[in-house]
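Key result, reporting period 2: structure in, sequence out.
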């Protein structure tokens, strides 16, 4: 293949060294984040392209440059390899179906790292930290593929079956070890050390390793988060690389809720004229997520931010100027403003107008002298280039003029944001999409569109891309008001607000959605006889629980890829919020969707959709839910069921997405035109 063809096939160059560029082609998707590919090395000077491995067959799982020198770490067939100046050395030999070196198994990829690698080079490239996971004893779930990936050919006589080691609630989890490779010795010997540590003596077999970060100028120390099985206790373990030993330098009890794997640690080094080395991290131990400066070797942290608001991300550490740039919700929980804080003095400075509603992001130059400021909404986004020494942009990089001109030709819905004050003393953030020709004297049907999961946030003041929700608000034959409510348990409103749902998923979220719908039903422009709800994944679960309550406020339920029973879901997510089945049997019973009266009594009907190839929320959830409802006597006119052959959690296989949204739209049209002679009692 010609160089130009290979480069055009690459989705993204991973990282350039001084002379070479590593890139991937011929991708095959695995799970949400992971994929297999061929990797190639492109020499910028000669223009030549060489395969990373001569006999590769699109079977490389991950590859990454060392930060120093022409060294690459890569994983193939779950074994770790090092490529150095053209020579490949195999580091591990035990990789296989049940053992993973440098890449996560399914549950770690989905629930802990949200990524496809578990290996990290030291800053000087001399060492590589990596995790080894062993799934022996983890139960297997089999996903059938009836089309076996065929797009035009006939389906095979027997389905293709994918067996996934998938730990469900209270089942065996994979075990994990922390390892160090001396990359500097790779030419002469393979020196891998498993680092011993004891974090939770009572259940170290169920220990979970989360974030890993080098906290060193060269390779002196690396740190990792260790959680107990149900992720409400945390210890940070510091590894002394030279000695091959470890010690606990921080610990936290979060048994009032759960503890998140923040993936936020960044090394700082010394501050001012001192000789103590520090790193940055986020913590919500005060009740709000804030930025702290922690001594590497342990000791009391220094709070860099504080208040009843939350830091959402660390963008850049400027060591030379001793500044940290970050985003926070200081103005409002639905917004993100850009700030800088001084590491030594704690002096804070806003880089955008704090009186202006909106959400911003930023990307900084390597040395921190310049940054690209991105305005993300709620109006049309733009990007500007700034010097840190000026409040005037040096250049507008993108003002989206073309988009503005294109959208000006259309009548678009109006988007409004609200805060609902609950009589119990808390508030809920709400986003409302109103039809383009909205007339407050008319009556409109409403679609509630929640997600509602723990720590999530749907109501944010970012630009809303024109899509299906705009369509159902704009189509003259539909004209739905679309309402999204962030219930209790969702994120960025403090630890107490999100921890309330611990051990009782589905309860408070449902109460808040029903209460909000009743509030909306009182509005003069709402047709209270036609209030629908639709949700996907956790939103599908929440929609199911809302219908189950038999509240009478909702007239149509549309449920896509839902959880129906947390016992069927993976251990690392479900147990984080619900704890184990042994610890919380009543909670699991109450959280399952099992009551039928609301499904029987809904004025309209219920649609249940699911992909049969869903490796995340298994088709089992909908299969059991439908059987439960049928057995309980829910009549066929009240329940439609649609499966999507071989589609995963995204429901995209074989034009499934188009079918799905057409089906949802048809249901909304039918609901709007459903005749009724009665009115709900609270709207009289």
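The corresponding designed sequence is given below.
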């Amino acid at each position: 293949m010609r160089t130009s063809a290979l480069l055009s096939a690459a989705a993204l160059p991973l990282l350039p060294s001084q002379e070479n560029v590593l890139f991937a082609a011929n991708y095959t998707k695995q799970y949400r984040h992971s994929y297999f590919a061929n990797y190639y090395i492109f020499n910028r000077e000669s223009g030549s392209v060489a395969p990373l491995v001569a006999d590769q067959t699109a079977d490389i799982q991950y590859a990454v440059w060392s930060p120093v020198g022409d060294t690459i770490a890569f994983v193939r067939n779950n074994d770790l390899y090092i490529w150095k100046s053209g020579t490949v050395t195999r580091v591990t030999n035990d990789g296989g179906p049940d053992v993973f070196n440098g890449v996560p198994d399914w549950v770690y990829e989905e629930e802990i790292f949200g990524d496809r690698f578990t290996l990290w080079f030291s800053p000087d490239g001399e060492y590589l930290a990596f995790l080894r996971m062993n799934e022996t004893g983890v139960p297997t779930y089999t996903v059938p593929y009836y089309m076996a990936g065929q797009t035009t050919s006939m389906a095979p006589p027997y389905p293709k079956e994918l067996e996934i080691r998938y730990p469900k609630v209270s089942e065996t989890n994979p075990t994990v070890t922390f390892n160090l490779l001396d990359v500097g010795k790779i030419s002469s010997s393979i020196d891998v050390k498993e680092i011993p540590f004891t974090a939770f003596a009572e259940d170290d077999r169920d220990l979970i390793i989360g974030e890993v970060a080098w906290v060193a100028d060269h390779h002196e120390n690396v740190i990792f988060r260790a959680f107990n099985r149900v992720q409400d206790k945390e210890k940070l373990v510091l590894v002394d690389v030279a000695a091959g030993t470890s010690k606990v330098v921080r610990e936290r009890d979060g048994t009032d809720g759960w503890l998140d794997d923040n993936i936020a640690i960044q090394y700082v080094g010394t501050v001012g004229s001192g000789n103590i080395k520090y790193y940055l991290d986020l913590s919500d131990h005060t009740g709000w997520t804030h930025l702290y400066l922690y001594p590497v070797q342990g000791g009391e942290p220094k709070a860099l931010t504080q208040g009843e608001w939350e830091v959402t991300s660390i963008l850049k550490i400027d060591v030379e100027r001793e500044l940290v740039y970050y985003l926070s919700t200081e103005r409002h929980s639905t917004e993100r403003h850009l700030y800088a804080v001084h590491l030594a003095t704690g002096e804070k400075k806003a880089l955008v107008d704090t009186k202006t509603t909106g959400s911003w992001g930023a990307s900084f130059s390597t040395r921190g002298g310049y940054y690209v400021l991105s305005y993300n909404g709620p109006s049309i986004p733009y990007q500007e280039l700034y010097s840190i020494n000026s409040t005037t942009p040096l250049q507008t990089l993108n003002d989206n003029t073309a988009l503005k001109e294109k959208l000006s030709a259309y009548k678009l819905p109006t988007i409004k944001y609200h805060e609902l004050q609950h009589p119990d003393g808390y508030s809920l953030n709400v986003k409302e999409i109103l039809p383009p020709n909205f007339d407050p004297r008319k009556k409109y049907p409403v679609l509630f569109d929640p997600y509602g999961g723990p720590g999530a946030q749907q109501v944010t003041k970012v630009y809303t891309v024109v899509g299906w929700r705009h369509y159902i608000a704009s189509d003259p034959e539909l004209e739905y008001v679309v309402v999204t409510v962030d219930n209790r348990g969702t994120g960025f409103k403090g630890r107490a607000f999100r921890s309330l749902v611990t051990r009782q998923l589905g309860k408070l979220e449902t109460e808040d959605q029903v209460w909000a719908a009743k509030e909306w039903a009182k509005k003069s422009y709402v047709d209270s006889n036609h209030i629908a709800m639709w949700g996907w994944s956790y939103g599908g679960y929440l929609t199911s629980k809302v219908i189950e309550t038999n509240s009478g406020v909702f007239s149509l339920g549309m449920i896509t890829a839902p959880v129906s029973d947390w016992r069927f879901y993976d251990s690392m997510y479900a147990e984080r919020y619900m704890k184990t089945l042994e610890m919380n049997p009543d909670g699991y019973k109450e959280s399952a969707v099992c009551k039928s009266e609301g499904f029987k009594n809904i004025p309209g009907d219920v649609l249940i959709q699911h992909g049969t190839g869903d490796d995340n929320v298994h088709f089992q959830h909908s299969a059991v839910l439908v059987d439960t409802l049928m057995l309980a006597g829910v009549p066929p006119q009240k329940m439609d069921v649609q499966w999507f052959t071989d589609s995963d959690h995204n429901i995209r296989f074989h034009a499934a997405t188009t079918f799905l949204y057409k089906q949802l739209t048809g249901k909304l049209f039918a609901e709007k035109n459903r005749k009724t002679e009665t009115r709900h009692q609270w709207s009289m």
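The first strand starts at residue 13 and ends at 16. The chain has a mean pLDDT of 95. This case is discussed further under Risks and Mitigation.
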